[in-house]
Design a protein that fits this description.
- InterPro entries: DUF5347 (IPR035232).
- It comes from Serratia fonticola.
- This is DUF5347 family protein.
- This protein is mainly alpha-helical.
- The chain has a domain at about 45-90.
- Helices cover about 60% and strands about 0% of the residues.
- The chain has three helices and no strands.
- It has helices at about 5-40, 45-55, 70-85.
- The longest helix is centred in the N-terminal third of the chain and has 33 residues, at about 5-40.
- It is elongated and about 85 Å long.
- About 5% of the residues are buried.
Length: about 100
């Protein structure tokens, strides 16, 4: 038994299906962008993110896509944490900033 849909219902259904497909494509692009960025990091920087994410050292050589779901989530959260930390750094950092005077 089928139910007849009105032209308005069909139009809304098609519009919602199109929106859902766009959301799926957008999510896939974002995932690919993060994966490509992360996999292009130097081993040193990748290790920093893994360490911040709490991922054991034995897994630091894995690519982003080879991580578990919970590890990937931890990596994204660690990247946000590091981004916020770096944003709080002083704008100008020079070698002279490492000098400590006895008056301080």
């Amino acid at each position: 038994m089928s139910v007849a849909l009105t032209p308005d219902q069909i139009e809304r259904g098609l519009a919602n299906t199109h929106k859902a497909r766009l959301l799926i494509v957008d999510a896939a692009r974002r995932n690919k962008r993060i994966s490509m960025f992360f996999n292009s990091l130097s081993p040193r920087h990748k290790g920093l993110v893994y360490f911040t994410a709490g991922i054991v050292k034995e897994r630091h050589t894995l690519k982003f896509n080879d991580l578990t779901d919970s590890e990937r989530l931890a990596v994204v959260r660690a990247m946000r944490e590091l981004r916020n930390l770096i944003a709080s750094f002083p704008r100008s950092l020079t070698d002279a900033d490492s000098v400590v005077s006895n008056n301080d």
